[in-house]
Amino acid sequence: QLRNSCNIDFSNKCLLQCPFCQRQSIEGRDKVKQSFDMSFEDWKKIIHTFKGVHMCGQLSDPIYHPQFIQYLQYAAERKKRIHIHTTGTGKKKSFWKEAFSIQHPIRWVFGIDGLDQKTCNLHRIGQNFHQSFKAMLLGSQSHHRIVWQFIPFQHNEHQIERAKEIAHKYNI
Fold first, then answer.
1. Which of 167, 163, 87 is nearest to 125 (CA)?
2. Helix or strand or coil: residue 170?
3. Does the chain have fewer CB atoms within 10 Å around its N or its C terminus?
4. CA distance 51 to 91
5. Most distant CA atoms of the chain, gap in Å
6. Other CB atoms within 10 Å distance of the CB of residue 99
7. What's the DSSP call for residue 108?
8. pTM to 2 decimals?
9. pLDDT of the chain, 172 residues: tens digit per residue
10. Burial code of 70-87, b = ≥16 C-beta within 10 A, e = fewer?
């Protein structure tokens, strides 16, 4: 019998240095050192056990797993519900085209906390706003379900209404 879904952290990689992330604490750094990229055999076990998978890392961004596309394709071919949380930074357009070409409804959640490089980079340190935003738009144009995770802070709350307008315009 299949279980509903699980949330996994299937890598130990992230390019960002968010101040509230576990990766930035001493205990979190130890967790990162002890973690690793999930094997394909373990991925297959998860896919065959659950109806869906949430790739919302606490220590990593799932897109940095070296075989991310292969794993995603495997889950999609088996018609699994897939939710991916990412910052969208650090990957080339070719990566995004390949990921978004997978013909299966995938829910992508992009964490972008602002409308420009300055505001989004204050919390998600190291994020490239333009890369992330372009990836999010490409996902929307590719007819995937795109969610814009915009965490309000004092430094970006003045941008929330404009972000809502942009999200509505691009079906995000």
1. 87
2. coil
3. N
4. 28
5. 48
6. 23
7. E
8. 0.93
9. 567 999 998 888 888 888 777 777 777 777 777 788 999 999 999 999 999 999 987 788 999 999 999 999 999 999 999 999 999 999 999 999 999 999 898 999 999 999 999 998 888 999 999 999 999 999 999 999 999 999 999 999 999 999 999 999 999 9
10. ebbbebbeeebbbbbbbb
